[in-house]
Write a sequence for this structure.
């Protein structure tokens, strides 16, 4: 059962592929904001994975992010998520991202539990 207080942590080392320059979100070779956001979302969704029914998953529906400090290539970065509210199939999180020097980002995030097959069918029905 998914409950408030459920925590997770994941970590990467920043590579050239994670930079603003590589991802097209800027010209500098520092951790890109979109990469930090992806790490935050990955941390959140992975915290729920073992609690879901077979055939279910989650999709992000809201994220409010502050990128507070730049991180150079080669430095470790990690995200820590905590479930703050469970309202039916909607799960809310607070997420913080850190590098080896301290806090680099904060987010409020919501994920919605879906039935994967039904969700994909509905999404791809847009092509008809």
């Amino acid at each position: 059962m998914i409950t408030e207080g459920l925590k997770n942590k994941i970590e990467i080392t920043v590579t050239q592929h994670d930079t603003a320059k590589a991802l097209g979100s800027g010209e500098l070779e520092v951790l890109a904001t979109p990469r930090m956001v992806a790490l935050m979302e990955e941390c959140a969704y992975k915290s729920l994975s073992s609690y879901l029914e077979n055939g279910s998953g989650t999709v992000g529906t809201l994220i409010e992010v502050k990128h507070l400090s730049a991180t150079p290539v080669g430095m470790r970065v990690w995200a820590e998520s905590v479930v703050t509210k469970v309202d039916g199939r909607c799960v809310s999180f607070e997420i913080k991202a850190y590098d080896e020097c301290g806090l680099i980002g904060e987010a409020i995030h919501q994920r919605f539990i879906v039935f994967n097959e039904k969700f994909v069918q509905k999404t791809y029905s847009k092509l008809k």
About this structure: The first helix runs from residue 20 to 23. The chain has one domain: 7-127. DSSP finds three helices and five strands in the chain.
